[in-house]
């Protein structure tokens, strides 16, 4: 890791006016203000077909792995679909593995149309743990997202604070020493 941490955010929304993307930009602004270089990986701009293990380099998979691999901390942002995270984010994660995530600091963010967005964060936390990543205890959830934004800004100070704190923590903990491997990661050595 260089003296300046690098934070990448993966936007798991394809919607043009995505609340997830807006929230990740706020988190990345806070990360940049805290001293990091940043990269918003907008999955709308990458060609990532449904993952096929016989074609691990399909489309822009190599670019995705490279950009995530360069990060010291990674923010994963998703809209909530049926109580979990988006299929586009799942596809992106399927193209990655230990090389991109092991011993990295991960921050989680979700937005929901309804009022219960937490299960998607729990699901992402499990995925990251299986890759032996260190997931920040702080996470940001924005329920009823359509009421939260005024343009590109969050209306409520408490929402801004939660999202900005996620970006700040991604920088502050970018160089944390990882714990010994989780049982999930030692048992998840790949499906051949």
From TrEMBL:
Q: Does the keyword tRNA-binding apply?
A: no
GO MF annotations in UniProt: oxidoreductase activity
- Which key words tag this protein in UniProt? Oxidoreductase
Domain of life per record: Archaea
Pfam families associated with the record? FMN_red (PF03358)
Domain NADPH-dependent FMN reductase-like, by residue range, is 6-145
UniProt-listed Enzyme Commission number(s): 1.-.-.-
Cofactor section: [4Fe-4S] cluster
User: Which top EC class is named for this enzyme in its record?
Assistant: oxidoreductase
Indicate whether Oxidoreductase appears among the record's keywords: yes
Q: Which SUPFAM superfamilies match?
A: Flavoproteins
Q: What InterPro entries does the database record attribute to this sequence?
A: Flavoprotein-like_sf, FMN_Rdtase-like_dom, NAD(P)H-dep_reductase
> Which family does the record assign?
Belongs to the SsuE family. Isf subfamily.
Name-wise, this protein is NADPH-dependent FMN reductase
């Amino acid at each position: 890791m260089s003296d300046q941490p690098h934070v990448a955010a993966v936007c798991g929304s394809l919607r043009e006016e995505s609340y997830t993307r807006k929230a990740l930009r706020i988190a990345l602004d806070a990360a940049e203000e805290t001293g990091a270089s940043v990269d918003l990986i907008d999955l709308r701009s990458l060609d990532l077909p449904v993952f096929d293990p016989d074609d691990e380099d399909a489309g822009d998979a190599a670019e995705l792995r490279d950009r995530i691999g360069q990060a010291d901390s990674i923010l994963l942002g998703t809209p909530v679909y049926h109580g979990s995270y988006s299929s586009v984010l799942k596809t992106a994660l399927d193209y990655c593995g230990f090389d991109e995530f092991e011993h990295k600091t991960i921050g989680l963010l979700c937005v929901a149309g309804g009022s219960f967005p937490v299960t998607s964060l729990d699901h992402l936390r499990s995925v990251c743990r299986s890759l032996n990543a260190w997931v920040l205890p702080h996470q940001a959830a924005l329920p009823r997202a359509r009421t939260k934004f005024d343009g590109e800004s969050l209306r409520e100070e408490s929402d801004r604070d939660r999202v900005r704190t996620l970006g700040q923590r991604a920088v502050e903990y970018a160089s944390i020493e990882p714990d010994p491997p989780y049982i999930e990661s030692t048992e998840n050595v790949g499906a051949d």
